[in-house]
Amino acid sequence: MTVVQDVVSEEGADPKMPPGVLVEGPVVDAKFRDSYISFAIMIAGSIAALVWAFTQGIGWVEIWVFVGMFSLSTVGIGVAMHRLFVHRSFRCGPVMRAFFGAIATMAVQGSVLKWVSNHRRHHLHADKPGDVHSPYYDGFGNRIASFAKGMSHAQGGWVWDQATTDAEYYAKDILADPIAMFFTRTRWYWYALSAVIIPGAIGYAFGGVHAMIGCVLFSGLFRSYLMTMATSLVNSVCHSDGRFGYRRFELDDGTTNELVTTILTFGEGLHNNHHRFPRDAYLSHAWYEIDINGLIILGLGKLGLVHDIFIHPDNER
Ligand SMILES: [Zn+2]
Ligand SMILES: [Zn+2]
């Protein structure tokens, strides 16, 4: 594998990039393969879903499956992928860890290994050269010319950078975790379960073949795409340096807390709070900051299903 460090010395490449970034080789090829296939399926499915909705109509079964699967995968990204696997905000036994591995992967946002590696790199270099999806610097550490271009890079353009994060550098714990690696290896099965099989089965059970097709397109594929776009608002809107939302803490980055993103992501939009206290399991610092994912973790703690819930000592509320 080629890391940027080596490229700098060998080829005189731009020294702005820190170590832990791969610019070529099989890992970058694999990233493109995964991204092309999953986005092609989600976007084709979303177009078909809109055509289906306008020509065939959408009923209550499709809407409830949409809401249910959107909620499950939003908790999967927020509670499981982000706060458990990336930040280790709490601990749990192997059965719960496997459950969290499943719902994290069912968000269809890449494997646990890839998501964890990217997000840790994002925190280490937040809005500086080396950040994987900053509105201010591209994937090679070059300043992005305009705010609009930066927003579009952070919202999704970064996925197509000819570079990726080295898991050996950022996620050794995940590489050594058999549960997380099981879900990393079997990710396509969980994507299929989330976007096709579960919505289709529920649709068929409650409304026959017509509802089955509607559920696969609208509540499976279209929902996966919309949910990914909602999560991505955290990278764009919540790094807008106060243009959207507000800053509770003056940090050395562009993070903000933003209400719409917070609602759509069940709390992840409290992103300025999160960058101040990255390991905290609960992100709210005021009654109007509603962190549903954090409340779920606290609730699971009360039930004894998770433990060692982390709150920074400076942050007693
Ligand atoms: Zn961030
Ligand atoms: Zn984070």
TrEMBL record:
This is Acyl-CoA desaturase. The chain crosses the membrane at residues 36-55, 61-86, 98-116, 188-221. It comes from Bradyrhizobium centrolobii. It is a multi-pass membrane protein. One of its GO terms (molecular function) is oxidoreductase activity, acting on paired donors, with oxidation of a pair of donors resulting in the reduction of molecular oxygen to two molecules of water. It is found in: Membrane. Belongs to the fatty acid desaturase type 2 family. GO terms for cellular component: membrane. The lineage of its organism: Bacteria, Pseudomonadati, Pseudomonadota, Alphaproteobacteria, Hyphomicrobiales.
